[in-house]
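quick one, two chains, predict together pls
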Amino acid sequence: EPEVTQTPSHQVTQMGQEVILRCVPISNHLYFYWYRQILGQKVEFLVSFYNNEISEKSEIFDDQFSVERPDGSNFTLKIRSTKLEDSAMYFCASSSLGTAFSGANVLTFGAGSRLTVL
Amino acid sequence: AQSVTQLGSHVSVSEGALVLLRCNYSSSVPPYLFWYVQYPNQGLQLLLKYTSAATLVKGINGFEAEFKKSETSFHLTKPSAHMSDAAEYFCAVSEAGNQFYFGTGTSLTVIP
């Protein structure tokens, strides 16, 4: 069964450092997403991406965050200067449909990348 | 505004007993509702979804959920728990497809 893969599974970094989390979505999916889950809290939406541009983003997704699809397969989340409060599990997801086609959009998630900022 | 509340961050049941995981939602329009499961070191896997068709939705692994508009609930049930059901369960609501709003999750422990 097709799956979304994320690397690294766990990254430890110093505050102020740049971090890039990588995701390989399902090959025929067109919509890509990043979510995060701070320990003990809800899974929160960060950003959605379609046709090489951001389609929607939350207030969490400030100027420190950026996303990119550098080639035909990878989808990356960059945190420019990490803060302690960025420590979380980051989930990538992809889907074949978007709001133009169906409200019952199903997202396929990766296993997550755990980021620890010291 | 949409939101999801999952009552009970931890639920323990005996093997063979009924599993009931609670989810209440708020939504200004008819929602789409989902249950996802997360096994250790794995991603979020779709269990089932409600898309305004039948109010009783059957999913994988014997799970089902019933949409009750009057109670704004979408509780997840399974008649008989199995050891392999031990995992984290997330309820989610979506109005327009792209943004999912998740609950805080419920950790299910199955006692042999």
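The two ends of chain A are 37 Å apart (CA to CA).
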